[in-house]
Amino acid sequence: VRQQRLRQFLLGRLLARMALGRMLAMAPHEIVLDDVPGRAPRMVPPASGQRVPFFSISHSGDWIACAASAESALGLDIEVMDAGRDLAALARQAFDDAACERLQATPLPARVPLFYRMWSEHEARFKLAHPIAAAAPSCVALPHPVLSIVLCSALPLAVVPRLEPVILG
After folding, report:
1. What is the rounded distance in angstroms from the CA atom of residue 48 to the CA atom of residue 76?
2. Is residue 26 packed enough to be buried (19+ CB in 10 Å), middle (13-18) or exposed (0-12)?
3. What contacts 13, CB < 8 A, 6 or more positions away?
4. Which of 16, 93, 96, 115 gives the lowest tally of CB atoms within 10 Å of its CB?
């Protein structure tokens, strides 16, 4: 598990450096990330005084993703959809009664993707917690055959022209 976590940590930061470097016309090794325990990493402002883009990293299983934007704070979450987990128990721990009832009322084949969509959106909204983030962020689920992917933005996603999601498996 520690090797996998180390791999996720390193590859997530590599993806972030690549995306941010592309946005700022800098080499990935020039991008400096500040890691504070218990908080999402942030980019250290470059000496050139360029505006620091926003980014969010997520990982699940063997998958790692990063989204970056020059215009909007982001929250990204990916989750491998695993029908073998006790989703009802997880829902009771994570969601309110109304969300649990909605999940239980959903027919079984649709319950797994719905649970993971709800879970991913919850996590993406949490990651978006940023001083300038809107009270009601704009969230979108991105289609994928094995992952639940939700991206939330402080701005409506329709007005975020330079958005770069990158996912590696």
Report:
1. 28
2. middle
3. 33, 41, 57
4. 93
